[in-house]
Design a protein that fits this description.
This protein has helices spanning 2-16, 39-57, 77-91, 152-164, 169-172, 200-213, 263-276, 294-299, 313-325, 338-347, 378-383, 397-406, and strands spanning 101-103, 113-121, 124-132, 139-143, 175-182, 188-194, 220-226, 229-233, 237-244, 247-254, 284-288, 305-310, 331-335, 364-369, 389-394, 411-419, 429-436. The protein is of the alpha/beta class.
Amino acid sequence: RHQQTHTLHCMLVRALHGLRSTLPWPRLSAAGLSARPSVRPLARLCRQETLAMSQSVESGPAVHYSAALTSIDASQYEAQLATKVAWLETLFQDLEHPPFAIHRSEPENFRMRTEFDVWHSGDSLEFQMFEKDPKTGERRPVRVDQFPVASKLCNSLMTALLRELPLCQELRSKLFQVNLHTTLSGQAMVTLLYHRKLGDAWQEAAQKLRVCLGDLASPIHIIGRSRGQKICLDADEVEETLTVEGQTLRYVQVEANFSQPNAGISVQMLAWARRAAQGSGARDLLELYCGNGNFTAALAPRFRRVVATEVSKRSVAAARRNCAQNGVNNVFLARMRSEEFTEAWRTGGKKERLKGLDLVECDFQTLLVDPPRAGLDPDTLQLLHEFDNVIYISCNPETLHANLVAVKDTFDIVEYAVFDQFPWTPHIESGVYLQRKAGAPRPPKSSSIPDVAPENTAAPQGVKRKAEGIEVAS
């Protein structure tokens, strides 16, 4: 009866979210959890990223694979990539742009984090994902014992958890989801989500599990979640180490907060952005949607000063730490929406969240934007016209295309990089470097902002994050 109830619950949740296809590796929104930890915000975060991906598939490239991806043929990697690039070329055929620079992913073991539903059968359990039946259109569960797109460490943890969890009633009782987060540096987090309150007995059992998994990752953190409850054994974060153009960068990655899932592609994206920003050392950079400071820490040495904004409290805190531990001391971090900053920039108005920053003294030449799937809001889109250079990181080619059409009279597309962030899915990550056309006029800061939004057929509108306060890295 419990299993039937759990199954119906999962089906109802997915139905309410309107999922038509379940691809489990789209980009997470960077929404932070509420002050009171809860399973619901975490589940909402995961389902929103899946919804965002499923809504773009219908108009995206025809790359059709099982959502579960329990087996892949690595020899077909180039074929699936070619399909996506061909679709992208068709989408951008009305814009002048240089040839796409293709950045390939590893075909296997590239994904550093993943999540699984848990199916119970008596005292045993299994991990599951869901896929769409091509004949009936109905969603069906797929047992997942190994997940070849996930990191080798993720797969080792899966094997160990499938062995250890059924042996402990305290750990398996009403467990409905398992999330894994790993790093190239060999660290890991295991998050266990429950439909019940967790107590001392659970903590004791989880500590024993942590010891059992200790040979696989160091350190390894076990986190238990239920509605209104979060228990961490030691910590709820890992530290990733990336080597970019010979420089070692260290990043704190917080549980349930956005981080780049494909570490290999993340290295390529950072290297590309650094090369695009060369020669800007005497000028300033404005970065909107900075997340945990992934680009901020890597690009800051290329500029005199960086002003970065982000709305997620946890992301801003992580960005501040990431800048500090990478020796970056020329970054001002403001916790605010891009629309708020745009208003302050254009009107000269005072914002409490910009206290300590004199915008008049800023000499911005380059703008870096890494927006959500919905693309740039109208105010920020208009803001682009005031910069000489724009680095645009996009997780949605359709909204990127709409935004570039809107600014084509002001900018030339100098570089277009394609990053295969999620092989075997229709998803395409892009990096575009724009330079102002000779003689292109600059709008006065007091000019009105057109009440026109870019066309958006691919992204949900319910993933915006709330902003409060200010964090400063100095």
